[in-house]
Design goal:
- It is a single chain.
- With 225 residues, the chain is α/β, with parallel strands linked by helices.
- The chain contains 9 helices and 8 strands.
- Strand 1, helix 2 and strand 2 form a beta-alpha-beta unit.
- Helix 1 crosses helix 2 and helix 6 packs parallel to helix 7.
Length: 225
């Protein structure tokens, strides 16, 4: 990917984000995470030079390689993939800015234990399976608020920062919207517990997610094509 294309892609995405957020409010700020899982470190660097600062990776190993490759840049790294328990220590050592995919109390308990042992903390989002789909990880909408409270009270080394979800796997915009609204209503209820981020929306639906209240979007193919 060349510089010109990177600037063009980034401009297009930012323009679309701006249009969607302004329909909600001048004060509604949306953070863009560039999802770089299918991209090279060179591509990330090109986008970094075009002005993008936050990037998300799905695999701990890929995150490690890219952090090492690009360590001279002050990049904000996010972990957005499913975390296997045997990779927890590796992820802790990489110190991501935010871990988006805390998908169960079981994982939270294990992560908290290992964070405690290393005397450190991690900022995380609780992943919600808002469309109740078997193919997706996350707590169900019915369990979400209780799980959020539980982790806040029982996992002191995890700093919960909000919620994350993936839109319904459907062509039907109404269903996708519904899944986003479910997540947003949970976010509203956990805001008194310090929730800041409602992370939802990807390349195919981030404008729709913003219209439903998302304030953090994870965009890959639209940036790196």
């Amino acid at each position: 990917m060349n510089n010109e294309l990177a600037v063009k892609n980034l401009d297009k995405v930012i323009t679309k984000i701006e249009g969607a957020r302004l329909k909600i409010s001048d004060h509604h700020i949306v953070k863009l995470i560039g999802v770089s899982k299918y991209s090279t470190s060179q591509d990330i660097e090109v986008l970094y030079n075009a002005g993008q600062r936050a990037f998300g990776e799905n695999k701990v190993q890929d995150l490690k390689e890219k952090i090492n490759d690009l360590d001279e840049h002050p990049i904000e790294w996010h972990f957005i993939g499913r975390l296997q328990k045997n990779k927890i220590n590796n992820l802790i050592d990489l110190k991501p800015t935010l871990m988006h995919s805390l998908d169960s109390i079981d994982l939270a308990t294990e992560l908290n234990k290992k964070l405690e042992a290393k005397n450190t903390k991690m900022r995380c989002l609780l992943q919600i399976n808002s469309a109740n789909e078997d193919s997706k990880a996350g707590v169900t909408p019915d369990e979400a608020i209780e799980a959020y409270h539980y982790i806040t009270q029982n996992c002191p080394n995890i700093r919960l920062q909000g919620v994350m979800s993936i839109g319904a796997h459907s062509e039907d915009k109404k269903l996708i919207k519904e899944s986003f609204r479910t997540t947003k209503s949970i976010f509203d209820k956990v805001q008194p517990l310090g929730a800041k981020y409602c992370s939802m929306g990807m390349s195919s639906d981030y404008d729709l997610a913003i219209s439903c209240g998302s304030n953090m979007v994870r965009v890959g193919s639209s940036l790196f094509k």
